[in-house]
Amino acid sequence: MKNLKLGIFGFGCVGQGLYHVLQQSNAINSEIVKICIKDLNKPRPLDKSYFTNQKDDLLQNDDIDVIVELIDDAEAAFSIVSTAMNNGKSVVSANKKMIAEHMEELLALQEKNKVSFLYEASCCASIPIIRNLEEYYDNDLLTSLEGIFNGSTNFILTKLLTGGQTFDEVLKEAQNLGFAESDPTLDVEGIDPKYKLCILLFHAFGLIAKPDDIFNYGISKINTFDINYAQRHNYSIKLISKCRIVDEKIEAYCLPTFLPNDAVLSQTNNEYNAVILETAFAESQLLYGKGAGDKPTGSAVLSDISALNHDYKYEYKKNARNHGKLALCEDFKLRLYVRYNDSTPPLEDFESIEEKYASKQGNFLVGTIQLKHLKHSNWINEASISLIVLNN
Ligand SMILES: NC(=O)C1=CN([C@@H]2O[C@H](COP(=O)(O)OP(=O)(O)OC[C@H]3O[C@@H](n4cnc5c(N)ncnc54)[C@H](OP(=O)(O)O)[C@@H]3O)[C@@H](O)[C@H]2O)C=CC1
Ligand SMILES: N[C@@H](CC=O)C(=O)O
Predict the structure, then answer these.
(1) What is this enzyme's catalytic activity, as reactions (predicted)?
(2) What's the CATH code of the domain at 371?
């Protein structure tokens, strides 16, 4: 077995999680050579000699074979990862924003430099979804992939539905536990799970989608009125990311969704994530595990480092096979609950309205709308509007 020499960028939640996991695992032979962080004055649980704030101490260091990128700044991460690959080093990353925004450049860098770039931890943290999509679901029978791809929002929704705490209190708890992004807007507005959806869409179907092309709506406007609606109907509320192939087109979105309490995804609580895959013959399959947190995420990073010991690379076979054949589409229907306090949303945007309710506490309608009308409307951004998908 090789003795991999690691240069780690970032020693926050995930960096420290990886350190603990590496200490406790004897499955791989690796050594941390240096750790690059921003602030040299922060107290650290390791000897000072490990740390530097000079990226070239790692990137230009011939003793380092593998760069492990675990920082919270996507643009700095892209520069680090690009330089590392151009210097012939393999890279492991957990940075979904950077990967979703730069997928094409990252593919070219791997190709040009003949290095490996692995990022299992970027999607649903501890759930081994990317390598499964690459290896096990390497066929044309996968038709859809959906699930809960964000630990912080699932933690918040679980606590809000249980009652007793405000949105801000639960968000703070998710931040203290290390689940939330440094900018938690990425979590609560459904942007972080959309980045993950872009990555998984690529590994599932070979389509590179830009984050801006996929519609997302967050959970920040969900209030007691919506929670009461869910409880009256025996529903949970989950932030669902979904993509599926219909007639060589891909329908994809990330939206809060009411689900019956006995649905599999309703049983996925707190920081747990779940992915449901639909295939032609195996039918429905479920992957479940912690979607955020130090050691669960560190464990996925460890698995990538271990894969490098065996010279593992993603082959992106579906990209080669489906290149140019599939495209995102926006003309599909959603059954939607819309809660509003002030003015009624423009009813002409809807194909049909099946229920309209008004009271002193709040108003809602249930209707069917095409994604293209929803995505391009302005009224959905009003502070008093909340959107939640209702499954049939
Ligand atoms: N937290 C989680 O549960 C998960 C996080 N991720 C992803 O992992 C990555 C890291 O997240 P997390 O550990 O939570 O973040 P933290 O905020 O806890 O830690 C970030 C670390 O990055 C360092 N850093 C920031 N910018 C630079 C830079 N330019 N050069 C060197 N070091 C830098 C910081 O240094 P300093 O210590 O000096 O401030 C800090 O050590 C992110 O991309 C995140 O999206 C993925 C899955 C799960
Ligand atoms: N902020 C993210 C961390 C893991 O990707 C989340 O809450 O899921």
Answers:
(1) L-homoserine + NADP(+) = L-aspartate 4-semialdehyde + NADPH + H(+)
(2) 3.30.70
Phi–psi pair at 383, nearest 5 degrees = -60, -30
Backbone φ/ψ region at 158: left (φ over 0), alpha (ψ -120 to 50), beta: alpha
Number of Cβ within 10 Å of residue 359's Cβ equals 8
Residue 220 to residue 49: CA distance in whole angstroms? 43
- CB distance 53 to 40 below 8 Å: yes
Q: Best mutation site among 153, 187, 197, 216 for ligand 2, i.e. most ligand atoms within 8 A of its Cβ?
A: 187
- Sign of dihedral through CA atoms 52, 56, 62, 67? positive
Residue nearest to atom 28 of ligand 1 (CA): 38
Residues enclosing ligand 1, CB less than 6 A?
9-15, 36-39, 42, 70-73, 76, 94-96, 121, 125, 178-179, 181-182, 292-293, 297
Q: Are 88 and 115 in contact (CB under 8 A)?
A: yes
Single-letter amino acid code for the residue at 256: P
Both 33 and 102 in one domain: the answer is yes
Residue 72 dihedral angles phi and psi, to the nearest 5°:
-105, 25
Percent of the chain with pLDDT over 90: 92
Round to whole Å and give the CA distance between 201 and 243: 7
Count other C-beta atoms under 10 Å from residue 324's C-beta: 7
To the query of whether residue 295 is one of the catalytic residues in this protein, the response is no
The last residue of one of the domains, among 266, 286, 314, is 314
103 falls within a domain: yes
Q: Does some domain include residue 92?
A: yes
The 3-state DSSP class for residue 146 equals strand
pTM over 0.95: yes
Which CATH number does the domain housing residue 304 bear?
Answer: 3.40.50.720
Q: Please report the ipTM that was assigned to this predicted complex.
A: 0.99
| Span 167-194, average pLDDT | 98
Which three-class secondary structure string do you get for 334-349? EEEEEEECCCCCCHHH
Which residue has its alpha carbon closest to ligand 1 atom 23? 10
Instruction: Indicate the number of domains in the chain.
Output: 2
The structure tokens listed for 347 are 């009813």
Comparing 2 with 248, the larger pLDDT belongs to 248
Residues 30, 2: contact at Cβ < 8 Å? Answer: no
Range of the domain at 388: 330-392
Q: What are phi and psi of 40, to 5 degrees?
A: -70, -15
Reported as type and span, the H/E element at residue 274 is strand 272-279
pLDDT at residue number 140: 66
